[in-house]
Amino acid sequence: MDIQEFSYQGSPAKIIFGRGALNRLAEVIDALGCQRALVLSTPQQAADAERLSGSLGPLSAGVFAKAAMHTPVETTEEALQAMHSNGADCTVAFGGGSTVGLGKAIAYRLDIPQIAIPTTYAGSEATPILGQTQDGEKTTLRDGAVLPGAVIYDPELSQGLPYAMSVTSGLNAMAHAAEALYAKDRNPVSTLMAMEGLRAFTEALPVLKEAPQDLAARSSALYGAWLCGTVLGQVGMSLHHKLCHVLGGSFDLPHAETHAIVLPHAIRFNEAAAGAELTPLADMLERASAGEGLYDFVKELGAPLALRDIGMTEADLDRAAEIATRNAYWNPRGIDRDGIRALLDAAWRGERPQG
Ligand code: NAD
């Protein structure tokens, strides 16, 4: 094997994985040298957050259940007040990427320890990346201070994630790994983790379609989420993530569904330049093309296939192509407006991607 030059930086985060791992939360808070944790959640998961807070006894500084999509700065400011008035010295983010984002935004401002307990597969808990919105504008920063110091992955917590969300969330995670395969700054370890994450999801999601409560499949998917999130934090993303950022930010399309729809098209587009890097994924999906294999996988799972079904209008496609090609960014295949317009058109119609 001819190993090319590479650099690698492992994550300093402590990972605790296992069924019932949630029971170790008090021990984790203590190990971080903290005494009072503010438990964060969305309004939808407030009851679970309250239960978790109750189980912590005096280690809990209460619950702040207002986490929202895209981490609005106003919500963060309200949470900072709750931290202060409740005498909290760390946070416990219990939920998906939105709640983890709030924990990161607080840590970024207060430089305090944070623990993440993910209940979706988005993977934010494993990255030093924070996206925030203010006055309708989303900005993203990368800073070691926002990486949670400890993550508790308990598969039992994702058993209640509805099947449709499990699939789109899983495909969101697979997108991180698929783009990691051809990342400019990839290394042998990121490629190993990406392939293992993709394998975990290709095995788990079809099982969850038949049996959404299956704990073995839930643990495989959550393991995949950790791997895919870790590579997202380690190597640069390209066309697929750029397109999803544009579609979510400028057209307000839902995050995970957008990833699920765009992924086969972005990967098919990039196969022209990164065919060798994507061959292992094509082989895993038992197709000649990774992009076509992903399309068939998404279809078999019953996930959304067309941007027109999640709120995008045909009239917006020109503007989306224009925004997505306005600023230069690295991608294995050169990006041109007509090529991206054609890609978006096929994704809008829900067609099987063509080479
Ligand atoms: P989310 O956190 O917005 O959750 C969606 C909904 O599902 C919420 O109402 C939530 O309370 C609910 N939910 C979560 N887990 C559940 C469960 N087990 N059972 C029932 N309901 C549950 O969605 P998400 O897809 O996890 O995260 C999306 C956000 O994360 C986006 O804002 C995205 O930009 C961000 N993100 C950031 C990174 C990063 O590295 N910074 C990575 C991935 C995603």
From TrEMBL:
Xref: Gene3D superfamilies: 3.40.50.1970, Dehydroquinate synthase-like - alpha domain (1.20.1090.10)
Domain of life: Bacteria
Protein name in UniProt: Maleylacetate reductase
GO molecular function, one term: metal ion binding
Any one Pfam family match given in the protein's UniProt record, by short name: Fe-ADH
Record domain Alcohol dehydrogenase iron-type/glycerol dehydrogenase GldA: where: 12-155
Keywords: NAD, Oxidoreductase
Keyword Glycosyltransferase: no
Regions that span the bilayer: none
Family membership noted in the UniProt record: Belongs to the iron-containing alcohol dehydrogenase family.
Residues covered by the Fe-containing alcohol dehydrogenase-like C-terminal domain: 167-348
Organism annotation: Pseudosulfitobacter pseudonitzschiae
